[in-house]
Write a structure and sequence with these properties.
It is a single chain. This protein is of the alpha/beta class. Strand 8 and strand 9 form a beta hairpin. Helix 1 packs across helix 7, helix 3 runs parallel beside helix 5 and helix 6 crosses helix 9. The chain is globular, with a radius of gyration of 20 Å. Bound molecules: nicotinamide-adenine-dinucleotide (NAD). Nicotinamide-adenine-dinucleotide binds next to helix 1, helix 3, strand 5 and strand 11.
Length: 357
């Protein structure tokens, strides 16, 4: 009997490496292959961990169809290869963002179509347009912005943002490459029978995220506290009241595990999937929690100017995914910060040049 085989593109990245290792640990008989071009600084640190656990590594680039001419049939492909920074799409890395996040997805879909692999796509909350997110009515609480009960747009309530939220208008090049990928995935379903599920995730965090200024804010915050360096609140009055929900990587694993093993229930679906209101935090609150957990207090400066593409708040409404699958996030922001802190503490020397740069 042949066992399940899974290709994870971006398999040395934060999400890809965690999913590869957690799947291999839970299902030792599965064949797990992680493909990565090692573009993200720190992704190379995961190669020995993957190899030791029995996950195969392929040094490959999804921009090159040749790198995806693999002589093995996969049951599933988890697409976790991307340039995940919103800021990257606003500068010289623009063509890299398009070539990887969109053309690379197409190359990966062609592999799925050729081999009959089912496709799990990690999309983003950034498919929702900036100007619509800016038009959410919110009130200013003591430590955070809060979604008000009175809204004029569809798909927004005090629970957060649902799949019914508008999709018209600009969303950043990063978000557009992801939404365009979603559209192409639907075409591959219609014309090449590729079965898929799309998860639109907000902030995901936890150990092995190589957080940097433009991506991975929770790791960045924990690292700044660990090495006692100041943080900065950008825009929105410089008070750090902007809010995100955060999904623990282990909660994402639980979701992907469910999807792999109940694919018929999610086939053809697009879900918002995030930490939700219960696991949301403002930057100001994040600073307080990090100080409590690390024992280090740092300064917080205010930068009044809004950063292009930034948004005041994003909270996922998980109603659809929970009713389809029963899945809901189980871990809190405190859990995420504690686990990230312990990971940094344990690997301080190795991580210092990357996370304290
Ligand atoms: N981390 C989050 O908060 C978050 C939220 C929503 C969606 N996502 C999505 O999840 C996926 C994984 O994100 P992540 O946080 O693990 O990012 P990451 O940067 O840690 O991992 C991405 C990996 O892809 C690799 N990669 C980049 N370009 C490649 C290419 N052309 N060919 C092969 N490999 C390439 C990188 O080296 C890296 O190891 C992305 O698609 C991202 O858009 C992430």
């Amino acid at each position: 009997m042949t066992s399940t085989s899974i290709l994870i593109t971006g398999g040395c990245g934060f999400i890809g490496s965690n999913l590869s290792l957690l799947l291999k640990e839970k299902y030792p008989a599965y064949r797990l292959v992680a493909l990565d071009n090692l573009k993200r600084r720190g992704s190379e640190l995961n190669i020995p961990r993957l190899k030791e656990a029995g996950v195969e590594f392929i040094h490959g680039d999804i921009r090159n169809p040749e790198d995806l001419q693999l002589d093995y049939k996969f049951d599933f492909i988890i697409d976790a290869a991307a340039e995940p920074s919103v800021m990257a799409g606003t500068g010289p890395a623009l063509s890299y963002v398009i070539n990887t996040n969109l053309n690379g997805t197409i190359n990966t879909l062609e592999l799925a179509a050729r081999t009959g692999a089912k496709f799990i796509f990690l999309s983003t909350s950034r498919v929702y347009p900036i100007s619509c997110l800016e038009h959410i009515n919110y009130t200013e609480g003591e430590t955070r912005f809060e979604i008000s009960g009175n809204q004029s747009l569809a798909g927004i309530s005090t629970r957060g943002i649902s799949e019914a939220f508008p999709l018209d208008k600009a969303r950043s090049v990063y978000g557009t490459t992801k939404l365009a990928s979603e559209l192409i995935i639907e075409e591959f379903r219609e014309f090449f029978d590729v079965q898929y599920v799309i998860n639109r995730c907000g902030v995901i965090a936890g150990p092995y995220q190589m957080g940097k200024v433009d991506q991975g804010v929770i790791t960045l915050w924990v690292a700044r506290h660990f090495w006692k360096r100041d943080v900065a609140y950008f825009g929105y009055g410089g008070t750090g009241k902007q809010v995100r929900d955060a999904l623990h990587i282990l909660d994402l694993f639980d979701l992907v595990d469910y999807e792999l093993h109940h694919f018929d229930k999610v086939n053809g679906c697009t879900f918002n999937a995030g930490g939700g209101l219960a696991s949301s935090v403002s930057l100001q609150e994040l600073t307080g929690i990090c100080a409590g957990i690390t024992g280090n207090k740092v300064g917080a400066s205010a930068v009044m100017e809004n950063r292009k593409g930034d948004i005041p708040l994003y909270i996922t409404d998980n109603t659809k995914i929970t009713s389809h699958t029963g899945w809901q996030p189980m871990r809190s922001v405190n859990d995420i910060i504690t686990d990230t802190f312990n990971w940094i503490r344990k690997n301080e020397q190795q991580l210092k040049p990357i996370l304290n740069a």
